[in-house]
Amino acid sequence: MSLTVLGTVDIRNQLDSVYRSNIQKYTEQVDKNRYILSRLIDCVKFCGAFELALRGHDETIESSNAGVFRVLIDFASELDTVMKEHLTSSTVFKGTSKTIQNDILDSVLCVYHKELSNIITKCEYVAVQADQTTDVSTTMQMVMILRYEENGQVHERFWKYLTPHSHTAEGLSSVIITELRELQITPQQLIAQCYDGAVMSGNVGGVQKSKTVYPNASSVHCYAHQLNLIIEKSFDNSPAATGRHRPPPAATGRHRPPPASD
């Protein structure tokens, strides 16, 4: 009987009351840390739901105009005694720094990608949408969106921002194909692709070259971009709209003689 229970019961839990007390304190601290972390995640989710920037220009403690995340944390601490105690007594981890904010965002995105990947692998039909733009610092970003059918309902989900290595059609198409392969989307699943712009939607050199890998992916041009192109071309052909008028005839220096007097 002694050999039967050998190794299954920790004798310290039965004999040492101090050890049991330490275990209880450790468990309570872990629960408290998880509670604080859940409140921090809720604040990040709040900012994301309303498309608010987390950080401001001045994130110091003395700042009177800090970012939305900092102000939201301070507001939550006024309503939550546990949160307030944490912010006032913690000396190692407060959870308000930009590093922690980025870590939370990365963790949320990682969980989101995992859940969406599991859904995509079970879907019968998937479509991809992509668009790219260059900001004022000449840094190009491309957004990738997945559209899929699940239980008779069509869903459209953001996937991620991509950074192509070049502005060419080859660079754009390669980064899209890489993401599709990481998602394990089969050639039979991908039935549509939607882009805009001359480079993005060119028949020969555009991103539609991905049809060599996904032959069932029919290309659809962005309707909003089609309207934009039509209006742009219409204004380009209208001198009154563009402000470009014909220049006046050049002076020749020759004047007509005055009419003869009667």
UniProtKB/TrEMBL annotation:
- Using the record's annotation, list all stretches that form the DUF4371 domain: 20-202
SUPFAM superfamilies (UniProt xref):
Ribonuclease H-like
The record's region (Disordered) falls at: 238-262
The positions making up the signal sequence are none
Origin superkingdom: Eukaryota
Comp. bias intervals (Basic residues): 243-262
Tell me the PANTHER family matching this sequence. PTHR45749, ZINC FINGER MYM-TYPE PROTEIN 1-LIKE-RELATED (PTHR45749:SF28)
What name is this protein filed under? Zinc finger MYM-type protein 1
**Annotated source species:** Eumeta variegata
Q: What is the lineage of its organism?
A: Eukaryota, Metazoa, Ecdysozoa, Arthropoda, Hexapoda
The gene designation is ZMYM1
